[in-house]
Structures are given as C-alpha cells and as structure tokens.
Amino acid sequence: MQWNDKGSALLLAGALLALSAPFAAAGAAGAPALPGSPRAGIAAEPADGPDPIDFAVVVDQSKSLADKDLARETEAAALLSQGEISERSRATVIGFGSSEKAGQSPVREVCPLLVADAAGREALSECVQKLGRRDEARMGPGTDFPAAIRQAVTRLTGAAPAGTSKPAVPKVVFLLTDGRLDVADSPEYGTDRDSRQANGERRLTEELARARAAGVQIWPLGFGSAIDRAALTAMAGGGYRGACSDIPGSAPKMRVVGTSAEIDKALQETFAAARCARIAHGTVGKPPADLTVTIPPIATDGSLTISKHDPKVRVTYFDPAGRQVPARGAFDGSVFEVSGQDGPVEALRVKNPLPGRWRVHIEAPEGHRDREVAVRAIWQGRLRSDVTLDPASPRAGEEITVQARMQTRRGVVITDPRQLAGLVVTAEMSGAGFAPVTFRLADDGRAPDRKAGDVRFTGRLTVPAGATGELKFVTRMAAPGITSDLRPLYARTAEGPRTVVAGLAVDRVTVHPGGTVHGTLDVTNEDSAPHTLRLALKDVTPGAELALTPTTVTAPPGRSTRVAFTVAVGGSTPQGELGGQVTVVDTDGDLVLDSDYLDARVVAPPTWWERRWKEVAGAAAALLLAAAFVGIRIAARRRRRDLTGLTLELGREGRSLYALTVRRGQSPGGVFAFTVDEPYGEPPALRRIRGGTAAASHVLRRTGGGDLLFRPRGGPQVSVRTGEPIALGDHELVVRGGRVEPVATREFPWSRRTRTPRGQAGAPGEGGGRRRGRGTGEEARGGGGGTGYAGSGPGSGPAAGSGAGETAGPGAYDDNF
Q1: Are 208 and 238 in contact, with CB atoms under 8 Å apart?
Q2: Using one digit for the tens of pLDDT, what is the confidence trace for 490-545?
C-alpha cells in the first residue's frame, strides 16, 4: 500500500461529507425509499423539500498512515465543517484500525450520528478534528473490517432521537480502504495468526449479512498499490443490494482510485451512483480563469463543486444568464448556499437551478496559482407528472388511455427526450371492487402513443368490470438522477350511458407574455334538459398568470355545440413550455368530462427591431433608392457642367498665339479661371488660376443645362458659343471642342507638356492630319471644327488640323502639370 494514497483516502472521506450536500441539502430531494422499507410502494404525495440520508464515512487508519498525511486528515476535517447537510440528514465519521493489546479499540467513532441542524453542524466541525490526532495507545495498527462495519451498521440502524419517529431513509456506508483484512495480531479473533485471519474473514461475512438484512449499502473505495479487488468486490456485494433505482448501475459496487488526481472525480461519481444522482463534468484550469459546467433543464436540485485544493482560491458564480448569483439566499426562483469557501473544496448548492451553462470565475493571489481547479455539477431531477385520463370519467369495462407529461418543480416542461434516456414510466390504477392494476406508459409512437420522442408517455388498459366509485391513478418514474413522482390522479366511474359528451382541443402555439391561446370545446347533450359545464385550469406552471374565458358554458338539450375559449397569458408569465391542463366538468354531479394539455410555449416578446424591421428595411431601401437617384442626378449635372476637354485658344488677326486645354479636375463646379500673361518682349500665353475665381482672372463656366458663360476680368458675363471668337482685350478667345474621356494608355511623357515654341505660326493643317513643325516643338491636337495652328522654328512639333490645337512656347508650361 502507498501510505500517501491512504492519506488521500482521508481527504476523500471529508470530501464525501461535503458532497452530501447536493443530496442531503438539495440533491437528496425525493430520494426514493429502499424496497422493503415501510414507505416503499405507498402512493403518497412527496414533500417538496429534500429527503434525508443517513450515511457513515468509515476511514482506514491502520499503521499505513504516515505522519505527513496528518495534514490531509485536517483538510478532510475542514471539508466536513463546511459541508452542507440537510437539516434532517444524519452523518457519522468512524476511523478504524485494530485491537491488539489492553486499552485499544478497533474503531474510533470520532463523530457520533448527529442530526445536521445548526447545532449538529457545529458539533461535526469540532469532532472531526480528532481524525488528525491518532492515539496508538487506543487503536492498533491492523485493519479490522468486521468491527468497522458493525459499528457503522449499528449507528445507522439504531433508535431515533427521543420524541421523534424514525423515517425510512437510505442508509449508506462509504468504506475507504485498500481492502486487505489484517487481524493477525488481534487476540479476540483466536490464539494464533492463521486462525485469527480465518476467523476474521468469517466474521466479516457475518457482518456483511447483517448489513444486508438491515438495508445498509456498502460502497468501497480502494486506494494504494496493493489493492485486494476481490475483497472490495465481496464487500460491495455482501451488503444490501437494493438500489435507489431499477436501472442497472445503481446497485453498490467497488471503485478503485488509482492516483490522487482522481480523488475528486472518483468521490463525486461514487456518491452520485449511490444516491441515483447524475454528474456533469466541467472544465479545468489554473487561476485566474473562467470554468464552465452545464446543468440540464431536468435538474431540480444540484451542487456545483469546485475542487480548488488551496483555500486561498476565491470563487464567483454566474448563472446561464450571465448574472452573478448570491452566496446565500433566493434569486430569480432559485435558492443558493455556498459552503467550504475557506477549505480545499467549495460547493454552491442550488435548489431549482436555472438550466444552461454556468460560469465559475476563480482568482488566487501570487504563489497560490500552481494547482489546477476543476468544476463539476452533481444534480437530481424531481419531476412532477402532469396526467390526463381519456375518458375522464370511465365506465366499468371501458378501455381508457392515460398520458403523462413531465415537468420540473420550477415549472419547466421537459421537451427533449434525450434528457429522459433510460426512464421507465408506469402507472397504477386502484379502486373499489378490483385488485390494483399496474401498466406501463411508453413514448415509442406505437398505439396508443401518438408520436415517438414527444416526451408524452401513454398507456392503455381496461377498467375492471367490478370497478365502482372512485378510481386512483399514480404514475411512477425510475431512472438514475430522477426521483419518482407519486402524485395521484383521482377519477370516478360513470354509471349508465352518458348523456353529455365533451371534447377539448387546445391550440399548440407559441405565445408572448400578454398573448392569448385559443381552444375549442365540442359538447353533445343528449339529455332533455340543459347542462352547465365548467371550464377550469389545473396543474399550471408555477408563476404563470393565466385567465380562462369563458369559465362556464351551457350545453343546450338534444344537440351538439361548439364553443371557443381563450387562455390569456399574463405579462409576468415565465418563458418556456406552459404546464397545466384545461378541464371541463359537468356541474350536474361534478363529473369530469374531458381534459387536454395546455400546449403553448411562452417566448420573449418581440423587440422593437423584430416588430419593425420590415418597415425599417423598406424605408431604408426607399432612402437608398432616393439617394441613388439624387446621386445620379447630381453626377449627371456635374458631368453636364464639366469643362474637361474644352480648349481655350488665344489668337490675334487669325493667328493662334496660345492654346490651353481644360484637363480632368481643373473645373470644379463647372468653373475654369485663367488669365493672359503678356511678358515683355514675349508672345502672350494663357495660364490657369488655381483655387477658383480670383478677381484678377477671367472665368469660363458651364451651367447645369450645358450653356457656356464667360466673364472677362472686370467685365459682364456673356454667353459663349464654341468656335465663335470673343473679344478679349487686344486678342480674341475661341472656345473649341468638348468633353474628352480620359484614356490611361494615352499618358505619354510628352503629353504632360502643354506649350509650343514661341515663333512663327505654321500653316493650317488638314483635318485629321499631323505635321511636325520646326522648333522645340510640342504637340497640338485637333479637336475638330476649326483650324489648328502649330509653331515653327528650331526643332519639330506635330500639328493637328480641322480642330483646336494646343500649343505652348518655351517657359509657358501649364503649372498644373
């Protein structure tokens, strides 16, 4: 055996006590009675609060325990002091070794069986500390299983406190050991070592038989490197084999813990199996971190357990809605209580938890962040069965259909069949004149079940011919983690033929708080007198605000009638499936005629965007179209006003002296400003003025209608026709051409220069032709409809005919380029 692992067993013992909270304080809600107990088979309505559990944690404290493990023993004691235990639960802690000489005892009951009320929890917190102070004078170093099991069984089956009645509750022993019996040095077992071991094995068999007869389960957890698996298996099988459920896997069995890292996982899975609970494993991380674990909708009681190892780790809890929940108290329909905040294991017990992914935020100061923290959820579901009977008031010998729908204590109607995997649902019918009849309800789509997987369990049977008076139906559920609901349904047998027959149908709809659910009532009255029928709601989801209209209906004699009714859903009704039924009762004899499920799902009211998004989208589309139209109009107007491609030609007496072409981007807003430079001794030149309409400039503009206007410097504005000269001082100005679309491939190095050499004008060129003039030569392009001029002199330059030319002399570059 590895003694360090034996110390881990002590930690596990304390952790088991701490983890009893989910079931004793919360998760034990509705723990079913063991078969053979006084309450087994009784169809009584269970209490809504948690049921108790009696359990003993029995820890092997033989000589294998090393001194260094005493600290872990103290840690386990801290876990117990912080463990949340039901006010009605009882717990005891027993250490055991052997008795080998005078003054020694094989067992040491460090905590007697205490009721875990406020005073009992304080007493448990103190007495468990004795586990960390081993007294070798009072306990031997061997391993006396018979004595340990006898002590635990006696305490769990002993008399109840004075003045109280002993409830029938599950009784469980968690035995932490390596499974190796060692009584070779205990004189009470015989005169020599061999006979002592043989007698010890025989007595162990006897004690296990006693535990089995008393209904006490044995759940061994093995530690160490030399575990006797056969012995552990025999102890699990030797105790009481009745399980908390008929589902395989819930009967006692042994569990081996290989390493210390597996302790937390092992203890929670073992406790969950023993209590027919379920476990959800979450994430692992070192602080600071956010861990998550998911609680399903079927859970009604549970606990989030955080194995933090270091008390310095601080934990904050957030529900699936992202809200921080209180450490203690009620919040949004749930009840919370945190324990173990100053210990190595912390737990958040939740009654009626909100289903979904819970977030656990962990923080720790520097020097306390090296241990991994794990979160898990242990939970149970205490479901209510919402039952309908068709016909609602059967006659003897008539075939009936029973249908059950499941919902939680919180009112959540279960709609996912995967959450009820392995669930077995039965119903029992009892009454006067016949022996009780048990039949199964199924959700398999086979008649009489209408649809497989809709989480409505249906069964059919015939009312015995001898049935008279009252009938009682009780549904039972069996599955790990799910507690049976024994809530009864009462009916009465009808006598003679029916004179009034009614059928209800409720619409299956999605509705918002404040909305309405519709339904119809079809009634046939074959009596000679009218009948008054009463409509009512029953088994409604807690917190739902429902109003049924109308509540009374008159069925005229001798004919059939259809009546529409509504169920108004109040504004504060919780979201989710609505639980409940609509029933119709004939007031003449108070006879239930029919009932139907309230099939509606309440969802959040639509937001402003959800209600108006179509209108907003339509308006946005209209605005976009309008904006596009306006943009097109503006762009068209801008194009009409654009002066790009126009050439301003300055001439005198039929000779072209200078030409300046308006380039892209040089006429913002349809305005082009320029001036005439006349340097001394040089020919005049045109020069663009940047930045608009300076007072010292000439301005050419085009209107939105496409008309050209020219305002000479200091003169009035006049209209301009292309190709017609305008007087400009001693010169003439001719505007030629039109808009020229830019072509990127025409960007040649020489195309960015706009002057021709000063010199004599060349002869007019022919339209569409070019000739190279002499001089420093620059290009002049014909724009069509006129005479192009090109300068002459040294060098050469092209000239274009039949159009406006563009020339530039030396030094007269357009400063835009």
Answers
A1: yes
A2: 888 877 677 888 989 899 888 889 999 999 999 999 888 899 999 999 888 778 89
